[in-house]
Amino acid sequence: MYHHWMAVWTGLKARWELLRREPDAGYSTETVLVTALLVVAALAIIAIIIAKVTAKANGISL
């Protein structure tokens, strides 16, 4: 597990150095990051809605 995080950290450092050398290259990275965060937020909201609907449906007595 430790090696996995070291590989991620090394990749992030390399990307950061590239962005420092070429400031315009960060635009696409920023767009991807914002898009990924929006997708994660949408998935979390969908999971909450599904859990609430399921709980409500299970509470109905027939």
Q: Helix count, per DSSP?
A: 2
Helix residue percentage: over 70%
* C-alpha-based Rg, rounded: 20 Å
Largest sheet: none
Measured between the Cα atoms of the first and last residue, the distance is: 49 Å
Low-confidence stretches: none
Strand/helix succession: HH
- The proportion of strand residues reads under 5%
Which structural class is indicated by helix and strand composition?
mainly alpha
Number of domains: 1
What gross morphology would you assign? elongated
On the 0 to 100 scale, the average pLDDT is: 85
**How many DSSP-defined strands?**
0
Question: Mind explaining what this structure looks like?
Answer:
The chain is mostly helical and 62 residues long. It has one domain. The chain is 85% helix and 0% strand. The protein is built from two helices and no strands. It has helices spanning 2-21, 26-58. The chain is elongated, with a radius of gyration of 20 Å. The model has no long low-confidence stretch (mean pLDDT 85).
Structure in a nutshell:
Helix content is 85%, strand content 0%.
Short descriptors:
85% helix, 62 residues
Write the layout of secondary structure elements.
Elements: H1 2-21, H2 26-58
